[in-house]
Design a protein that fits this description.
CATH architecture of the largest domain: Beta Barrel
Radius of gyration: 15 Å
CATH topology of the largest domain: Lipocalin
Largest sheet: 8 strands, antiparallel, barrel
Shape: globular
CATH superfamily of the largest domain: Uncharacterised protein family Atu4866
Strand content: 35-45%
Amino acid sequence: MRNPRVDTTIFGATSLLTLALGGVAPEQLATPVPAAAGDAEVLAGFWLSADKAVRLRLGADWSYLGQVAGRRRPAKGTYRPEGAGLVLRDDTGLRTPVTVAEDALEMAGHQLFRA
């Protein structure tokens, strides 16, 4: 049987890396710290990337506000634990997975540290 052609134009970076790694998502290669439902207070606060391009405020009420350099509109919405990390869901319905490590958050290729 022939291998089917995969149209990669619909995939994001995480999906393409997952395909390249044989079905292992990049976030599964790290050693994330599980985020339990009661961790909102622990994770709440202001997070910042080293280059200050990405800013994220996680609220103890499961809301978030994010800003990315070069984008006019800030992202805002809610977040919730999922698996070994978090998922941000903005007002438009866009979902962004976040890996929770001991002292950092990783999302969309950026590492965020507590500010």
